[in-house]
């Protein structure tokens, strides 16, 4: 997965009646409020605005990288938790089945299999969306590799239409992954 903003746009806005600027980095948007990260900057007395903005941009990029790393770690943990819940449900169902088989007359002590089923079917839509995006980015990488190969190494020849069609198929697959149509 790429750790870079695909279409970075840095927006700088001088605040009225203030000696400060608002800075935002977006992913292709020119709307200040779509900023992935925003900061307020006041140039120093030497009016070294460029250096200040460069520092803010560097800080913002570092913060974005930290947030992405945290997000990736949380998603990986969620996947592991879902996997362990399924393992636990499987083991518990064996134990519950053996226990329930020892009860000769129903007296209310039967173990609840519905609880096990519910634990096994935990829904994690944010994790599912994140994993779909990771898969789609993998397909995007394959598409980009095909395009780079055609543009940089192959040049015009009889294989180019097939490679271009392959890249178009990758775009379709990535869109379907992002929409949740396929997994």
Automatic annotation (TrEMBL):
<protein>
    <recommendedName>
        <fullName>Ead/Ea22-like family protein</fullName>
    </recommendedName>
</protein>
<keyword id="KW-0614">Plasmid</keyword>
<feature type="coiled-coil region">
    <location>
        <begin position="64"/>
        <end position="91"/>
    </location>
</feature>
<keyword id="KW-0175">Coiled coil</keyword>
